[in-house]
Design brief:
306 residues, alpha/beta, Nucleotidyltransferase, domain 5, 2 domains, 5-stranded mixed β-sheet, 10 helices, 10 strands, globular, disordered N terminus
Length: 306
């Protein structure tokens, strides 16, 4: 069964949870992708499992809805056959857990998925890629994640590690990456990389890409250069993904999508330059529509219906 069919099946809301590197986002989502509770966006607790259970109970106690199931998006690999969580360097409390080990509520069925896959599902089912059958989601924030849908089916790979676009090598002599590689895309084109490059170029430390974006919009040429550099490399990667998978739409999400006005021109030029002409025909580039809720909506859409 495809994800959109699963999202429409049955009645009642589903819990969507997106575990990030430093925060947890969650909401109750109805089958049409509408949030029927406030979006929780909380700092991650050291006792993550207890925090997830508390979020579930807080949301369900405050809303008069029947929760049919839960979807949990994690920043790491998930075995597509068993749902067992593999390597999650930024959330070790989840590593090695089976869905049955994560008890949020009595009898509540849970499905676990990779966070970039969840965000792709969210944008595909209820966001910028609604109606498409062939989709690439590219999510640039702390790192760079990716999800791919081909003919209405999410690609997972044999071990749940398909489409790790953030670890495409764009400079073999580039900086080391925590994955063990060198010169990976996310070392150049993530929000973290934009802030780091700007800081190195100016000698001014900034907390993140949002501050660099404000400087760029204020006329700072170095800040604009930081985004131009990231956009070109994101465009090269997007073109490579287009040549591999021939999607109808490539969605750019994550924190960097908030700087779409600074990225669009250079990103579009790079995609046009590096995509095969027949592949580029009809290809659409779009910023994500769901913002911070993309992973939550996608996790909920992936949740078991009963």
């Amino acid at each position: 069964m495809s994800v959109p069919e699963r999202a429409r099946a049955g009645a009642g809301a589903r819990l969507g949870v997106d575990v990030g590197g430093t925060s947890v986002r969650a909401a109750l989502v109805d089958p049409t992708g509408v949030l029927v509770s406030p979006l929780v966006d909380a700092p991650r607790s050291p006792d993550l499992i207890s925090q997830l259970s508390s979020i579930y109970h807080d949301l369900t106690d405050s809303q008069s809805v029947v929760v049919a199931g839960a979807g949990l998006a994690v920043p790491g690999s998930v075995d597509p056959a068993t749902g067992r969580i593999g390597s999650v360097p930024t959330a070790p409390a989840l590593q090695g857990l089976d869905p049955a080990d994560i008890r949020l509520g009595p009898g509540l069925p849970i499905r676990v998925c990779n966070d970039a896959n969840a965000a792709t599902i969210g944008e595909w089912t209820h966001g910028a890629a609604v109606g498409a059958r062939h989709v690439v989601g590219l999510f640039a924030g702390t790192g760079v994640g990716c999800g791919v849908v081909i003919d209405g089916v999410l690609l997972t790979g044999s071990r749940g590690l398909a489409a790790e676009a953030g670890h495409l090598v764009v400079d073999p002599d580039g900086p080391p990456c925590p994955c063990g590689g060198q010169g990976c895309l996310e070392q150049f084109a993530s929000g973290t990389a934009v802030a780091r490059w700007y800081g190195e170029a100016t000698g001014r430390s900034v907390p993140g890409a949002a501050e660099v974006a404000r400087a760029a919009r204020g006329g700072d040429p170095t800040a604009r250069q930081a985004f131009e550099r990231a956009a070109r490399l994101l465009g090269v990667a997007a073109a490579g993904l287009a040549n591999l998978f021939n999607p109808e739409v490539i969605v750019l999400g994550g924190g960097m999508a908030a700087a779409w006005d600074l990225l669009e021109a250079d990103l579009t030029r790079a995609v046009a330059r590096h995509t095969m002409p027949l592949t580029a025909r009809g290809l659409r580039l779009a910023p994500g529509r769901l913002g911070r809720a993309a992973g939550v909506v996608g996790a909920a859409a992936s949740a078991p219906a009963d």
